[in-house]
Amino acid sequence: MGVPEEEAVRLVAAGQRAELLDRVYASFTAYKEMHDMVIVHGTGVGSGKLDAEIASAISSPAIITCQAKDQSLADLKRKILLKKAMLDDHKIPQLGVCLNKVPLFDRNITMAQIKNKLAEEGLPLLGAFPEDAMLRGVRLDEVLPALEAQRMFGSNVVLDQEYSAVYVASQRLEELLELMASDGDTRPLVVTSRDRLDIVLGLLASQVSIAGPSVAGILLTHAGGLTNRTYAHSLLLRMFEGLAKGYQGSLLPILSTNLTMYDAVRRLDHLTGAVLPTSTRKIQHCKNLFDTCMDANSLVAGIEKEEQLITAARRVTPKMFAHSIKSKCLANPQHIVLPEGSEPRVLKAASEVTLRGLAKITLLGDPATVAAEAKKLGADISGCRVVDPKTYPAVDKYVERLLEARKGKNLTPEAAYDAVTNDVNMFGVMMVAAGEAAGMVSGAIHTTAATIRPAMQVLKTPNLVSSVFFMCLPDKVLVYGDCAVNVTPGSGDLASIAACSADTAAAFGIEPRVAMLSYSTMGSGAGPDVQKVTDAVKLVKESRPDLMVEGPLQYDAAIDPTVASVKIKTASEVAGRATVFVFPDLNTGNNTYKAVQQATGAIAMGPVMQGLRKPVNDLSRGCTVQDIVNTICVTGVQVIVNAIVMGVQVRVAWLCGWWRT
C-alpha cells in the first residue's frame, strides 16, 4: 500500500511533495474502505514534517514514537517535544507516546521518570517496549528474496526462524565444528559453496545428534567452474528424503543461490530484521509484547475520543477535499474551455489535466501560436482541442445567440460580432451557452470583471449571482462568500448568498454550518449593519429551514469552540463549528480571505461562481498551475452536480405531470 520508498524520495527531491501526498491519500482511502482500522507507519524522515503532513492529509491522530536506547532523560524529552511541536503546527491531535528499545535493566525506572515528565506536557505514556533480540534478528525466509535463493530442504516452520550470526565455511569441517562449539548457544547461518558437500553432511550429522552444535541453516553459493555440475545433488536429495521418513525432528534447512560467496555475504551483511506477513513467530511475539508493554485501555480511550470529535466536527481536510473533487472528475471528465490558450500556466495546467484524465480541454487562440508556446514549455497538449475564435465556423450562430441574450440592450450585430471574435472570454461563454463546452475557466491574465461580465450577460438566471472561495487551511476546508462579486448586498442578497453557499458546500462534501458574520455576536452590538445581518438570518431560516444557520456572529465565535462557549450561552449547532462564512459586504470578505491566505499559507480556490445557468469560474492573475488545475476540477464537479439537480427536477416535473393526468 502507498508509495514505494524510492519513489517517495524521488518525488520529495523533485519538489513534488503535493503529488506524493495525493498518492498517499488515494492509497489510504482505497485501503481504508476494506478495513475497520488502518495504522500508518511514519516515514521517520528528517524533522517529521512529512509525517505531520501525511497525518493532516488523512485526518488521523498520531502516536509519538521515540527510541530510548543511549538517550538521557533530558534528550528523550527534548526529542519528544520537538515531534509534538511539529504535530501541533499541523493541528494533529496526539494520542500519547510510545518508547522503543528501552534498555531492559532500567525499563521500569525509565518509564516512571518519563511518565512524570510527559504528564507536565499533557501527553500520556502509552507504552515502553524493550530492545528485543528476536525482532532485531533476520529470518531464513527473508534471505530467500534478498539473495534470489531457492529452498532445497526445510519446511516453512523451520524457515520462520532467526539466525544469530553468519559463518563463512571455507575451512576444514573439523575446524568449523570446533568454532561453532566454542561459541556456545549461537545459531548461525553457515555460508559455503555447493562443492563442499562435506560441510553439508557434517552439519546434518551435527543437527541429528543431540550433542552437536546448533545450526540455523546452510546457504550454498555458486562454486565457480562449470555451471552445469550438480555436485551429487540427487544423492543429497535421496539422503534427506530417507531421513525425513524416520527422523522425528526438523531437518536442517538448506538454501541455494547462484550468487558468488562474496556477493552473498555482502548482501547478508546489509539485511536487517523485519516483521513481515509471513513472520509467524515475530507476529505472535509482537502481540505478546503489546499485551505486556502497552496501556491498551488508554490507547482505546484516546482513539474513541478522537473519533467522537471527528464525527462531531465532520471535518474535511484539504487533501480529502482535493481527492474527492478529482475522483469525481476522473469518473466523469467534463469539457472545459480555457480562453487564455497561449498563457504558459494555462498550457501546463491543460497538459496535466488531459494527461491525468481529469477533464477534456479546449484552448482558445491561434493554433500555430498555441502549439509553439506549448513546445517551448514542453507541455503535451496533444489531448487538447485548439479553436481560433476568428475562424471558427459557428461564429455566426454565436452572434445570433448573443443578440438574443442581449435583446433590448441596444447591441448591434456588428458589435456582437466584434465581441464574439475579439473577446476570448465572450467566445468561451458562447461555447458554454451553446453546449459545446460544459464550463469555462479564465482570469490568469484577465481581471475578474472581464471574466465574469460575459457570463452575467449570457448565462444569468433570475437568482443573484455571487461567489465563494474554498479556503484550504492546514487542517480543514472552509467556504467564504461573497468575496468577489456583490459590493454592498442587502439583507435579501445576504440570505441568497447564504443559501447558495450552503448548497455549494454540500455539493462538494462539506457539511454546511452557516455563520452570518458581523462585528456583533447575537445582539452584543447594535446598528444598521448588525440589523441587516439579523434580518438576513431570519430570511434564510424562513426560506430554508433545512439549513443550520446562525448570526450575527463574530468570526472568532463562529470558528473557535472556546470563544463560542464564552460569548454564546445557549446551545448552538453553528457557533464554534461553522464551515460556511457569509461576510456582510465585499470590503470585509475580500480583505478577510486575502488576509487568511497570506497569514496562514492557505490555498484559496476561487472565486467559484454561483447563480449562473452553467459554471464559469475566475482565476487570480497570480495563480499557479496547480490553482488552475484545481479550478478546472471544481468547474467539472459543478457541471456534474448541476446535471444531477437538473435530472431530479426533470423527473419531479414528469411525475407531477403524470399524476395530474
Number of domains: 4
Question: Class of the largest domain, according to the CATH hierarchy?
Answer: Alpha Beta
What is the CATH architecture assignment of the largest domain? 3-Layer(aba) Sandwich
What is Rg?
Answer: 34 Å
Shape: elongated
Total strands:
21
Identify the strand order in the major beta sheet: 18-17-19-16-15-20
Give average pLDDT, whole number: 85
Count of alpha/pi helices: 27
In terms of quaternary structure, the protein is single chain
Beta-strand portion reads 15-25%
Query: What class, by secondary structure content?
Result: alpha/beta
Low-confidence stretches: 647-661
Domain Phosphate acetyl/butaryl transferase: 321-635
InterPro entries: P_AcTrfase, P_AcTrfase_dom1, P_AcTrfase_dom2, Phos_Acetyltrans/Butyryltrans, PTA_PTB, Ser_kin/Pase_Hpr-like_N_sf
Protein name: Phosphate acetyltransferase
Pfam family, one: PTA_PTB
Which key phrases capture this entry?
4 domains; 27 helices; 661 residues; Rossmann fold; Udp-n-acetylmuramoylalanyl-d-glutamate--2,6- Diaminopimelate Ligase, Chain: A, domain 1; 15% strand; five-stranded mixed beta sheet; alpha/beta; six-stranded mixed beta sheet
Description:
The strands form five sheets. A six-stranded mixed β-sheet has the order 18-17-19-16-15-20, with helices on both faces. Strands 5-10-9-8-7 form a five-stranded mixed β-sheet, covered by helices on one side. A five-stranded parallel β-sheet has the order 13-12-11-14-21, with helices on both faces. With 661 residues, it is of the alpha/beta class. It is elongated, with a radius of gyration of 34 Å. The chain folds into four domains: 39-131 and 286-313; 138-272, HprK N-terminal domain-like (Udp-n-acetylmuramoylalanyl-d-glutamate--2,6- Diaminopimelate Ligase, Chain: A, domain 1); 323-460 and 612-661, 3-Layer(aba) Sandwich (Rossmann fold); 465-611, 3-Layer(aba) Sandwich (Rossmann fold), CATH 3.40.50. It contains 27 helices and 21 strands. Helix 20 (424-433) packs parallel to helix 21 and helix 22 (491-507) packs across helix 23. It starts with a helix and ends with a helix. Residues 321-635 form the Phosphate acetyl/butaryl transferase domain. This is Phosphate acetyltransferase. InterPro entries: P_AcTrfase (IPR004614), P_AcTrfase_dom1 (IPR042113), P_AcTrfase_dom2 (IPR042112), Phos_Acetyltrans/Butyryltrans (IPR050500), PTA_PTB (IPR002505), Ser_kin/Pase_Hpr-like_N_sf (IPR028979).
